Write the structure tokens for this entry.
Amino acid sequence: MTLWLIIYRSLRQHALSTVVTAASIALACGLLLTVWMVKTQSQAAFTAANAGFDAVLGARGSKLQLVLNALFHLEASPGNLAWSDYEQIRRHPAVKTAIPIAVGDNLRGYRLVGTLPELFAVELAPGRRFELAAGRMFDPLAAEAVAGSFAAAQLGLRPGDTFHPFHGLTFDERNRHAETYTVAGVLAPTNTPADRVIWLPLAGVQTIGGHDPRAATDVSAVLIQLRAPTAGFMLDMMYNKQGNRLTFAYPVGAIIAELFNKIGWFDRVLELVAYLVALVAAGAVLASIYNSMSARQRDIAILRALGARRRTIFGAVLGEAVAIGVLGALAGLVVYAGLFSAVAGIIREQTGVVLTVMAWHPALALAPLGMIALCGLGGVVPAFKAYRVPVADTLAPQS
Amino acid sequence: MLEVTDLRKSFPTPDGSRVEVVRVAAFHLAAGAQCALRGESGSGKTTFLHLIAGLLAADRGRVALGAEIMTDLPESRRDRLRAAKIGYIFQTFNLLQGHTVLENVLLGMGFGPRGADAAHARELLDRVGLSHRLRHFPRQLSTGQQQRVAVARALANRPALVLADEPTGNLDPRHGHEALGLIREVCRENGAALLLVSHDEQALGHFEDVQDFAALNRPGTEVRP
Ligand SMILES: Nc1ncnc2c1ncn2[C@@H]1O[C@H](COP(=O)(O)OP(=O)(O)O)[C@@H](O)[C@H]1O
Ligand SMILES: [Mg+2]
């Protein structure tokens, strides 16, 4: 209790430096956690966000681009494949499901993706399927649409609304198509990139005016579920090694993981910056307490005269550093919640992938504890200085 | 209560030799007794009190507080003995500026075996007439009030011995007079022996038992290292 009193009063007495150093700890802690959690969570979320498909078949090109375009609804399509290619893979014995998609139009920046109603029967993740929040599924032969939850919310689409598609993947007022589509339904949130998509019947997209009439039966990609993983390597051999017209992107998870490897250096730089900030913050704790030490010599000598032992004084100064660390770490969790929400918001906006702020990860305990330990370490130096204050000499200079 | 035997202390000088400051052959103070030592500035009074309180290690000799021998103990045990048995009053009060009046008194007992006892602290502050100033900080008090806080703090750990080092040095004569009366009374009420050192005749005049420190303390002129 006496120790707490001394620590508390010292923190109060040096309130400004307490707040400033705790704030720098909070910043360091928040940054470290954000970098860490965004990295691990987005890696997990993106790798899992395969919409239930094992592979993607598309035009010859980059597997990553194919996956990003077909499953994440990012990037442009590397090209088209013929309807016969779709028919061929659909009938392949190793293929459980094959669903074609056609990309190429947008509604105010949100992609219009043509597909077959079967897509909505596929399990997005074990036990999770598309569900309608309002309205009904589109009629595959009508000019109807079903909107993903995020796109619908952003554009204010409701069943019964009508719209004109715009040509291309980026919105340009001048590229409006003449066709009118009616919103038949709105999907419930899936927390996947599909939330940003407005789905149309495949036949519709293929025949929208202005598209090359000869390509009317082409598709952008085919999403594939396999009967067994081994079949993937067989198809990989067939399309990628023996053939040279198409690209078979498999396995999706490995292709996304490769993307994260490519941008891994960026994570590492951020992480390094966060570690440096943490070190600087611990240094700030050390310096601020150390600098106040000469002004506190007298108080220390008085406490010693009252019977405090050297190790009690050592403990009080160390405790002060740790207390600043604790304050900073707690505030750091708040900083983290704020930073992470912001980053998660941007990721959601850009990709539809949802990261959860409240998800538990050992780093949430380790980073604050590590930061507190680092502060304690920083406190050792001034604590040792306090430990060595000569009592009699400090009290004496009268006479 | 307090037995000092052949106590010696020297300090190093800049030229590498040592100068002896304290050499007290024998000094005795009975339990609950009050004694004042008269000594000029620089005569080693403060050093003598520091040795008794265990704030300094003696070169040789013995300080006994009842059954316990301060001079035999290592530093941390001297600290504990001081926390348990000694109250200290300084010329400059030496209150902790960051702590309230009440907290200063609580810290006077916090390191002792009984720990902090808020009721006792309030009682003492009430006794020195400061019960209405508990939450004030030292700088918000007059010097006379500050010295009264210091008096309450010195008695907080229920000490057997109170050491007072020129306690009136920073007070005007009237407040000095009051402070001395108060110190003597509360020591008596709490059963603490009082050893006061001063060069101030007015302060010394309060005491029945006044000894010349110069007669007691006969340091050698110089000691080889
Ligand atoms: N730590 C020290 N190092 C060297 N000399 C000291 C030290 N402490 C006290 N002295 C010297 O010892 C002498 C007595 O000091 P002090 O005990 O403070 O006397 P008083 O309290 O009677 O004025 C002084 O000459 C002082 O300079
Ligand atoms: Mg002195």
